Amino acid sequence: MLHGGRRAPAEDTPIAREAEAAVAAMARSQQPLPRPASTRTMVVANQKGGVGKTTTTVNIAASLAQFGAKVLVVDLDPQGNASTALGIEHHSEVPSIYDVLIERYSMEEIVQPVEDIPGLYCAPATIDLAGAEIELVSMVARESRLQRALSVYHDTMDYILIDCPPSLGLLTVNAMVAGKEVLIPIQCEYYALEGLTQLLRNIELVRAHLNTDLRISTILLTMYDARTRLASQVADEVRMHFPNEVLGTAVPRSVRISEAPSYSQTVMTYDPASTGALAYREAAREIVERYAQVPGQRALPADAEEVAR
What is the pLDDT of residue 19? Predict the structure, then answer.
């Protein structure tokens, strides 16, 4: 780029600025973060499909684990995409969260460690979960089965992230009864807020009748394309309606994010220096730092392997 017939300094070019931002973000990822005084159970929900629920669940979980936290991902979607992204087997012979809900197995018997990320664990889903909604209808305490199952991890995990199916059925209700926080990914597209009213209504119903501690703590803008005016308009509208819940970080559209699951990885291990990985790392940092002033928190070690040992 020329300015007045002279070439601009290399550090003023867009590529150089992006590289500098990436280096700064990577450096921040090595800094210690506060550890929650008690387990934070976050329900990742949005009944609209294709907004990045599973992608957000696994990449936020991987980021938190890389920061040194102990994290459990509960795959509550019959498609099992979160299990795939974490490299966890989830064919029909594998004991899964379905077996826990019908009380065939306990959580300790089905949870598996994620191979590439110390401190990260997964409770897989299988296709059997597709029939769970019908089976649970006639069962005793059908709405609180997941809550009871997860209680064994409340003293050992820093974070539990529950990946919900794209519906507002009994599986999602189980997740909302088990959790205290709701994380809503919202796609930066025209129909971003479509259906959100129904989700908010269901959250209020659960809070009123089943879980008074439930609240919306985090909204993450996903698939953000800075080149379009529509994306910025949607982002502005969401921030106007939810000024305290929307994270400052928006996750951009990224080929690397889309490619990672096909290699049974999160983008955090597939391409940790990509824009998508950096965005999820910053979003995870925001999620942690919003609670940094809560009494009783401890500093996490920068090295996640120290926690694993």
Answer: 55
